[in-house]
Design a protein that fits this description.
alpha+beta; Nucleotidyltransferase, domain 5; Taq DNA Polymerase, Chain T, domain 4; Alpha-Beta Plaits; 4-stranded antiparallel beta sheet; 19 strands; globular; disordered N terminus
Length: 669
Amino acid sequence: MSKSLCLSVQASCPNEVVVGEGCPDSPSKFQFIADIGGKRCETGEGRRLKRRPNSGEGVGNCSDNRDKVASQLFSSDRRDLDEVGQICSDSGQIAVDCETYHPTEQDKALRPYADGTGLRVLSVAAKVGGKTLCWAFDLRATGFDLGKLGKVLGEKRVVCANACFDLLFLRRFCGVRAEKVFDVLVAEKLIGNGASGSEQKGFFSLASTLRRRMGLDLDKTQQTSDWGAETLTNEQFRYAVDDVRHLLELAPTQIKELERDKLAGVFNLEMRLIPVLVDMRAEGIKIDLDTLAKRTAELETACGQSWDLVLGEFKAGGFQNSFRFGQKAILLKALHTLGCQPCNEGKPSTNKDALAMESKKPNAPAVLGLIRDFRRLDSELKQARQITELVDPDGRLRTNYKQMGAWTGRLSSAEPNLQNIQKEGSLRSVFTSDAEDRVLVVGDFVGMEMVAAGCIAGEKRLLEDIASGRDIHTRTASRLFEKAEGDVTKAERALGKLANFNLLYGGGARVLFGKAAHHPELNPTLEELEKLRLRWLKAFPSFAMWHEQHKGISIFRPATIRTLYGRRKLSVDSYTQALNFPVQGSCADCIKLAMARLHGLLLGKPARLLLTTHDELAAECPKADAEQVAGLMRQAMEKAFQSVFGLDAPVSVEIGWGRTWKEAKGGVK
C-alpha cells in the first residue's frame, strides 16, 4: 500500500494539527488545523455584542441555557456583521449554516444560480471564552457584504453540515471563499459507513446524527417554511440558530473517532475536495443551447419514428392497440401476443435485462431489437430535455455533485446525472468551452479498475499485461481462447472484456450470461461461460486466491473492509461486496486526490477544473495553454495514482483537448 497523507502533530494548543511538509503519509492523524475541543487559544472571553434598539426588529434578543449556550442574536442590522466578525476572529473555528428560498419552486432553493433563488439567513456560532455564542442574520436586510465577518469566514476553519451547499451559497451571494472546512456529515458518513441502520434514508442527516450522538431532538418543522417571506418569525430564527448551535460540540467527538479508526487521512482528502467541488459548481460549464435545441428536435423525431416501427411490428403480429412506451402493462400484453414472456427474478418485467435475455431465445421476435434501439434514443432525449431545463440563466450547467454519493466513496452527480451521458452519444457535443480561443482539456484513467484489482490481489500477470501497453481485453481473450492476440475475433475480445469486468468481482456464469445478452454479436451458453470462468481463474491465479480468501464473508460472518487509502466499510456481509469495495473505493480515492492536486496546480492560471465523471476530469483553458494544462493534468493524475496504488503500479492516462467535451475525447494526444 502506498501512503499519501502525512502525520504531524505540532500545535501551539491541544488538538491543533498542522501540515507537515515532506513527511511520510499516515492515515492516523490530521493534516489540517483541528482546534476543536480541549483548551482554546482564544482571547475574546467575556465579549458580548451590544444590542441596538432597532436591529432584529420583530425578533428580539433571545437567550437559551441549553448546552452552555451563553447568548444568541437575531439581527437585521448591517453593523452587527462587523461586530460579530470581530468576536469570531478570536475563535479557532466558526460554525455556519444557510437558509435559502425560491419564490415559486422549492427545489430551486437548492440551486444558487437558478433564476429567483435567494440566500436569506446566515447562522453563525463560535466558541468564545468556553461558551458557544450563536447569531442569525437576515441578509435581505443587512445586505450580502458580510464585512469583517466575511473576512473571518475566509480565514478561519468553517464547520458545516453539508459544507458544499453552504459554501456555494456564500460564494454566490456574499463572495466568501472558505478554504478550511470541517463537514460533520462527511465525517459521520466515513465513521458510520456500513453501520447498523446506515442504509436507511436520513441516517446521516444532522438531526439523526445529533439524536444518536448527543440525545438531542432537532425540530425540523421550519425547514420547509417560507424563507422568502417579507418578515421572518421567531420560530424560523430559532430553527436557523439550532442548525449551528451544536456543530462545535459534535466535531471534537468525531475527530477522536476518526483518529481512533485510522480514518483521518481519507477525511482530510474529503475536506480538501470540498473547496474544489464548490469552485467547480460555481464555474459550471457552458452549454451550446443552439446545438442542444437542434439535437433535441432530432431526437424527438427519431424517437417518434423508432416507436412507430415498434408499434408496426406489434400490429403485424396481431396486437392492434397503439400505446406509449411508459405503459408497461400494455407493453407486456403486446409482447405476450408475440410469444415473449420476459421476466426478471421470476416476475414479469420489461426492463432492459429481461428483454435482453428474451432476445437470446430461439426465434425471438425482431421487435425486441427495435425496443432496444428506441430505449437508447429515448434515454438520450430525456437527458437532452433535462439539460435544457437545468441550464442556469447565464447559459451554464451546474450539476449537483454528491461528495459521497456511493458507499464506495465514489462521487455521483444529479440534476443532471453526468455519469449517464454516454461517451459515444451526441450530447457531449453540447458541453463546450467559453469561446473559440478556449478549449476543454479532458483526461481519463485507462483501466483503473483492473489495475486497482491487480494491486489489491497481487495479480502480477495482469499488471505485467497492462504495463506492456497491450489491449488488456484482447490479451485476456488470447489467454482464454489460447490463440495469438492478432487472431482474436471481435466477439472473443468482447467475451474477454466481460470476463475481466464481471469475474473480477466474483461473478459467475449466470452473471456473464446476463451481461452477454446485451451484446447482439454474442450468444454463448451457460456451459460455455462456466468453462470461460474457470479458464479466467486459471489464467489469473492470484485473483482466484483473492476470491477464495473472501468466500467466508456472509451475513453470519461480516467483515470490515478498507481501501488502499484507508476508507472503510463496516459489516460487509457478502462475498462480492467484499471484493467490490476495496477496488471501487480505491478508485474513488484516486480520482478525488487527482482533483485536489489538479485544482491546486491550476490556481493562479487562466484555467479551471469544470467537471468529473467516472474516472475522467475536464478543465478549461486558453487554446494556447492546452499543452501546458494537459501536462499539469497528467502530472496530477499520475501522482494521485501512484499515491494510492504504489510507485510500481502501471498507470495510463489519456488526455485530449477540443472545443467540446466530445471533441476533446476524440482528440487524444
